[in-house]
Design brief:
Elements lengths: L8 E3 L2 E3 L7 E5 L2 E2 L2 H6 L7 H17 L4 E4 L9 H8 L5 E7 L9 H4 L11 H11 L9 E7 L7 H17 L3 E4 L7 H10 L7 E3 L8 H9 L3 E4 L10 H13 L6 E3 L6 E2 L4 H7 L7 H12 L4 H16 L11 H13 L4
Parallel strand pairs: 3-5, 4-12, 5-6, 6-7, 7-8, 8-9, 9-10, 10-11
Antiparallel strand pairs: 1-2
Bound molecules: zinc ion.
The site of zinc ion has 5 residues, from loops.
Protein name: Phosphotriesterase-related protein
Family: Belongs to the metallo-dependent hydrolases superfamily. Phosphotriesterase family.
Cofactor: a divalent metal cation
């Protein structure tokens, strides 16, 4: 079974041909939360019904600005609730794409301690099963299939649990052909480590997006990622509390002049609601951090700085379409359990 019929891209409302995705924001969030916290200590700014209405309005405005597809990289660890997003998706004109993966920079929940090869309860690694099932069968019984695999490494480095997530993502890629995208910490240049880890497990660099690359102005680092074949996610426009947009734009322009238009994607990493940085905080500290910044502010800044229409089309439309179109799985003939075991053996063998 491949990830979508005929190399199509799975969206909340069914498969879409890559050529029909149009201008795409490839790294966004709709709702970021924590179901256990919400159950026990609800956030005063989180009203689910109101949030759905807000997301419908925001994504409808985005379509009016020319955006046609939004990838929601809210995975496990960030409070993914695909059924809620489906209620938004059925009312908005943009395509929404779901993701699988696990967001942790250090440890997994205790369940994963006891489940998996060589562990107390044993069985195959549930991470591999979850990622592949999300891609092939759909998420949580909704039939909505994941179109990207998201992983994280940050200040803690590739801890044992983070290595487990990365290895499972690589395995899921090999079995489905779906692109792997990351949360990286460019100040540590750790995209290179992510790339090396995933490549060592068989993921082609062309199927890897190193996310948050736009947080740095280190051109040598960014060029190295892209020269190795990865795509740099210039995906935090509006996060001016990390790096001002004029400097993010200057970095993209410098790389365009060097010929890297086919290796960059643009997005905001924004959200309609995030419990981590709630709306009241964003309103004060990050007023440009929302879905509309690229269309309204960033693309005009890029154009004024010398980016061509082709450059914009390449970064906003062609690159996302190429990355979201599933590649041919390379491990279709093997059983997932065997390969998952092999991945874990390789890890315990100390290769990284
Ligand atoms: Zn994100």
């Amino acid at each position: 079974m491949t990830s979508a019929p005929g190399g199509a891209v799975p969206t909340f409302r069914g498969a879409v041909r890559p050529a029909e995705l149009g201008p795409t924001l490839i790294h966004e969030h709709v709702f970021v939360g924590d179901p256990e916290l919400d159950l026990n200590h609800p956030h005063p700014e989180w009203d689910p019904a109101e949030a759905v209405e807000g997301a419908v309005a925001a994504l409808t405005r985005l379509h009016e600005l020319g955006i046609r597809t939004v990838v929601d990289l809210t995975v496990l660890g960030l409070g993914r609730d695909v059924a809620r997003i489906a209620r938004v998706a059925e009312r908005v004109p943009v395509h929404l794409v779901a993701a699988t993966g696990y967001y942790t920079s250090n440890v997994l929940p205790p369940f994963f301690r006891t489940h998996g090869p060589g562990r107390l309860v044993g069985g195959p690694d549930p991470l591999v099963e979850y990622f592949v099932r999300d891609i092939e069968d759909g998420i949580a019984g909704t039939g909505i299939r994941a179109g990207m695999i998201k992983v994280v490494t940050d200040e803690e480095g590739i801890t044992e649990d983070v290595a487990r997530v990365l290895a499972a993502a690589a395995e899921a890629h090999l079995r489905t052909g779906v692109t792997v995208t990351t949360h990286s910490r460019p100040a540590l240049r750790n995209g290179l480590q992510q790339l090396a880890f995933l490549r060592a497990r068989g993921v082609p660099p062309e199927r890897i997006v190193i996310g948050h690359s736009g947080d740095t102005e280190d051109l040598a680092y960014l060029r190295r990622l892209m020269d190795e074949g990865a795509t740099a996610g210039m995906d935090r426009f509006g996060m001016e509390h990390v790096l001002p947009d004029d400097r993010r734009v200057a970095t993209v322009l410098a790389l365009l002049r060097l010929g890297y238009s086919d290796r960059m994607v643009l997005s905001h990493d924004a959200a309609c609601f995030s419990r981590m940085t709630p709306p009241s905080w964003r309103a004060v500290h990050a007023p440009h951090w929302h879905y509309e910044s690229i269309s309204r502010r960033i693309l005009p800044m890029l154009t004024a700085g010398g980016a061509s229409e082709d450059d914009i089309r390449q970064m906003m439309t062609a690159n996302p379409a190429r990355l979201l179109a599933p590649a041919t799985p390379v491990a279709g003939a093997e059983t997932g359990v065997d390969r998952a075991d092999a991945a874990i053996r390789r890890h315990h063998g100390g290769s990284s």
